[in-house]
Amino acid sequence: MKKQRLIAYAGAEDKEWAVVTQIRELLGDDAAEELATICGGERIRLPSPAKLTPEHPLALRLGYQLARRIVDTISPATGVSSFYVPKLLPIRLSRLLREDGLTSREIAQRLMISQRTVFRYRQRFKEQKIQVGEPSRPRSPPLTKQAERGRQIVETLLAEGHSPSQIRDILNVPGEVILTIRAHLHKEGKS
């Protein structure tokens, strides 16, 4: 892979994005997003390609493969020894907002931002008629076939008149589980 020279930009804001833009163009959006997730808002120093080892601090933070790809693409030989990594917050936030099942709290925790920021972006997307994922999900996961079968067995034994302590000893089930099922049956009027 031939190394490309960095393009000089006139605006200060563009200079901050120049290296990350080059990483996005050469290595893809996923590599740039992973870099922003790990080092967003920081200035990182690049070692020379010969000095990058799996024990190097950059390799320990980013993972050796990603660090190697970045150093090989943008090395000090191109004149860049350090650069600012923007957080890419709007890009990362819009991607997470479009996913179903993520609550505002979970998004805020992942991006280390306030919930209010997530609410503002969610509202802005809705006003612009950009589709936003639904944060709702079922309160409890459905029972597995094995768990459903176990519940049926306990219900049957309780209905036959076995005591919770007998069922606990025979099936080696915690007493709280049996008492919960028994209370549920009593509530339904089956016991």
Automatic annotation (TrEMBL):
Query: Which protein are we looking at?
Result: Homeodomain-like domain-containing protein
**Matches recorded under Pfam families:** HTH_23
Q: Which domain of life is it from?
A: Bacteria
UniProt source species = Gellertiella hungarica
